[in-house]
Every structure is written in structure tokens, then in C-alpha cells.
């Protein structure tokens, strides 16, 4: 087989353990998954109802143009329809961008730690990845700027950043965009956009009008609670959208998923509720961390990166034994921390109890 050289030292994505697996492993009846930043409140109620009555022509290909969803989304965002692209999750849009713009001889710039799929797909395409360490959990945009050279093709900004949850400051972003050459695509991945409560946040969609080389990525997987159905979207200039659409496979989103996204898009109250409850529950975990002298990064997303008083992989394993699936910082490039999705009130009651047990045990062992 003529596998690409880049694949030699790479591994497929390792998914976290499923609820069923953990139940089986530890003989538990209840297991709470707080590892993948999914929505603990489910999805928009109208979607659940719609599903019961859905009629789909099984034998007909989906609308490759995502026409109805496109019209609704364009209206909601106040942009022209030709400035949107839809993907099978924003994951697919990352693949499309890498495929369209990266290859041997090019390079790409991303933070570290950040969402690993940027570097993963850049490497598969044979591009060089320049990783810029976060400073206090924040993107170091000056260092990003210094890393640009004539072969730089794509810059990835993740805001709020996964796994720290930090938001890029708007003024700094604008100063940075002013300096980036127009032939470099700047991706602003806002998978957690709906959870942002920082009053200083200014809608980045407006930036895509002023800076034609910017694309904003968002998704129905998080606050809309439709991770199972894989719908993400990008907002950019018509020229960039046309080129990316050329790489996109023609029927990349199923008819079911398109219809559910259309229905979900109409329920702003569900999103507002999730944003509010997420913030309330996040404060509880932040307070717990403060009481226990554990560092926690400021987060504008639906997860927190929290210090643990032990090896992160051991902490993750111990929480698993209590029925809580979280992500070890060891796997995310942040040793000594775990990333926990903000659950519901009762999920967090249990999580904080399990976390307390862990901390007490470490105290005794010392
Ligand atoms: C920052 C970021 N971008 C993109 C994604 C991919 O989301 P999806 O493909 O479900 O839209 C995720 C998922 O965790 C993420 O954290």
C-alpha cells in the first residue's frame, strides 16, 4: 500500500470510554459522561417531537446545498447565503480546509494545547505544523504573527479554546487580523459560541465581512445538543466558501440531520436556558476548586480545566470508578489537570462528591 508518509507516526482518534463500557468495567448502575462537552440538558424539545413525526424520502439524496437550513441560518446571522458552508460536524469543515489549503511545502499555525484535529489533518496533508504555546491559557497572537512566513497557509484560532475554555480578546484579534497577509486563511473555531457570557465578546461574524480571509466555524453539536447528527457550519467570504465547497463531498449531511438542525435553530430559549444553567453550574465547580486551592482556567465554554492534586490519569481513573467520565489532561497536553464538561445540578452534586473523596484520599496519603 502506498500510505502517505505522514500516517506512519499518527494514530486514529481514541474516543473516551462509553457509558456502557464503564458500567460493565466497574459494575456501576449509573455513569455520568462529562468528557466530551456534550449538552447535559439534551436537545431542543421541538427536535425531539419532530423526530417522532419525521418523514424522510429514504431513497432520495439529501439536499447537498442545505437550502432550507442555509436560508434560515443566513437570516439569523444577517449574512448572504453564499457566505455559508455546512459540514458533517465542524470536524468535516476542518478536514475540508486542510485538504483545500495544506500540503507539502506549506505550514500552518495553531496554539498548543488546542483542539487536536487542526494539527492532525494538517499533518496528514503533509504540512508543517507550528505550535504556539498558550500563555496563561490564552492564545499568544504576537507569537502567532512572528511565526508567519511566505509558506503559511492556514492559521487556527480556537475561541473559546478547547481545552482551556479561554476566549480571545476582541481588540487583540482585530490587531492581529490587520497584520495577517490576505492570502492566509484565518480559522476562528467557535464550537462553544452559544455558551459565551463575557459581555466583552463581540460577534466575530462581523469580522468576516471586513476580513475576507477569515472563516468562523460553529456547530450544532454543543449547545443545540445535536452531536449525534453531525452538523457544523462556516461563515466566510463567497470566494473562500466556493473553494471549500469544491472540496466538500456533494451530499455530506443527511436529510435527517439537515431537518433537525432547521428545527433546532428556531429555539433560542433552549439555548438561553443552557447558557444560564451552564454558567450557574460552572460557578459551583469553580468555587469548589477555589476552596480546595486547585487552579482552574477561566472558561467561556461548557467545560473547565481543573488542576488535580495527583497524576491526572490516576485522577481520571479514580473518577471513572465512581461513575464519572472526564478527560485526563495528560491526553490533552496539560498534565496535572482534568477537563470536565459542566453537567446538570444533580450530575455535579455527584461529581463534586466523587472529586472530594479523591482529594481527601490524597490528603490522607500525604
Ligand atoms: C473546538 C472544537 N472544534 C470543533 C469540534 C468538533 O465539533 P463537531 O464536529 O461535533 O461540530 C469540537 C468538538 O469537541 C471542538 O471542541
Short description:
The protein is α/β, with parallel strands linked by helices and 366 residues long. It has helices spanning 19-26, 45-52, 67-77, 89-101, 117-124, 141-147, 170-179, 207-210, 238-247, 255-265, 268-291, 312-321, 345-365; strands at residues 32-33, 84-87, 107-112, 128-133, 152-158, 185-189, 214-219, 232-235, 303-307, 324-325, 327-328, 337-341.
Notable characteristics:
366 residues; alpha/beta; Aspartate Aminotransferase, domain 2; 7-stranded mixed sheet; 3-stranded antiparallel sheet; 12 strands; globular; binds pyridoxal-5'-phosphate
- The H-level CATH homologous superfamily of the largest domain, spelled out, is Type I PLP-dependent aspartate aminotransferase-like (Major domain)
Report helical residue fraction: 25-40%
What is the approximate shape?
Answer: globular
Number of strands: 12
Secondary structure tally, helices: 13
**Quick check: average pLDDT?**
94
Low-confidence region ranges: none
CATH topology value of the largest domain: Aspartate Aminotransferase, domain 2
Strand order of the largest sheet: 2-8-7-6-5-3-4
What CATH architecture of the largest domain do you see? 3-Layer(aba) Sandwich
Amino acid at each position: 500500500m502506498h500510505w502517505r508518509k505522514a500516517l506512519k507516526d499518527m494514530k486514529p482518534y481514541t474516543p473516551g470510554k462509553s457509558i456502557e463500557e464503564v458500567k460493565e468495567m466497574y459494575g456501576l448502575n449509573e455513569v455520568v459522561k462529562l468528557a466530551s462537552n456534550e449538552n447535559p440538558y439534551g436537545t431542543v424539545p421541538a427536535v425531539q417531537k419532530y423526530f417522532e413525526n419525521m418523514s424522510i424520502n429514504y431513497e432520495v439524496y439529501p439536499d447537498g446545498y442545505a437550502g432550507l437550513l442555509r436560508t434560515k441560518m443566513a437570516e439569523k446571522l444577517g449574512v448572504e447565503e453564499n457566505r455559508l458552508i455546512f459540514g458533517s460536524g465542524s470536524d468535516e469543515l476542518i478536514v475540508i480546509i486542510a485538504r483545500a489549503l495544506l500540503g507539502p511545502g506549506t505550514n500552518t499555525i495553531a496554539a498548543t494545547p488546542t483542539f487536536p484535529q487542526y494539527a492532525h489533518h494538517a499533518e496528514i496533508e503533509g504540512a508543517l505544523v507550528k505550535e504556539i504555546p498558550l500563555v496563561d491559557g490564552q492564545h499568544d497572537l504576537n507569537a502567532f504573527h512572528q511565526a508567519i512566513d511566505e509558506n503559511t497557509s492556514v492559521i487556527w484560532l480556537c475561541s473559546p479554546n478547547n481545552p482551556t475554555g479561554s476566549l480571545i480578546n476582541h481588540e487583540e484579534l482585530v490587531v492581529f487580523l490587520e497584520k495577517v497577509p490576505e492570502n492566509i486563511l484565518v480559522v476562528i473555531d467557535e464550537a462553544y459560541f452559544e455558551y459565551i457570557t463575557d459581555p466583552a465578546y463581540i460577534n466575530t461574524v462581523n469580522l468576516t465581512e471586513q476580513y475576507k480571509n477569515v472563516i468562523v466555524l460553529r456547530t450544532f453539536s454543543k449547545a443545540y445538543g445535536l452531536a449525534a447528527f453531525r452538523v457544523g457550519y462556516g461563515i466566510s467570504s463567497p470566494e473562500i466558501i466556493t473553494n471549500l465547497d469544491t472540496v466538500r463531498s456533494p451530499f455530506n449531511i443527511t436529510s435527517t440531520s439537515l431537518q433537525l438542525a432547521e428545527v433546532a435553530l428556531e429555539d433560542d430559549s433552549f439555548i438561553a436556558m443552557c447558557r444560564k444553567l451552564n454558567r450557574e453550574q460552572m460557578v459551583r465547580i469553580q468555587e469548589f476548586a477555589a476552596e480546595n486551592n486547585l487552579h482552574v482556567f477561566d472558561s467561556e465554554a461548557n467545560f473547565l480545566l481543573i488542576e488535580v492534586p495527583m497524576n491526572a490519569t490516576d485522577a481520571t481513573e479514580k473518577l471513572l470508578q465512581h461513575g464519572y467520565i472526564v478527560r485526563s489532561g495528560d491526553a490533552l497536553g496539560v498534565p496535572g489537570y482534568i477537563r470536565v464538561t459542566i453537567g446538570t445540578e444533580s450530575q455535579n452534586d455527584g461529581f463534586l462528591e466523587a472529586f472530594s473523596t479523591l482529594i481527601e484520599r490524597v490528603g490522607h496519603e500525604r
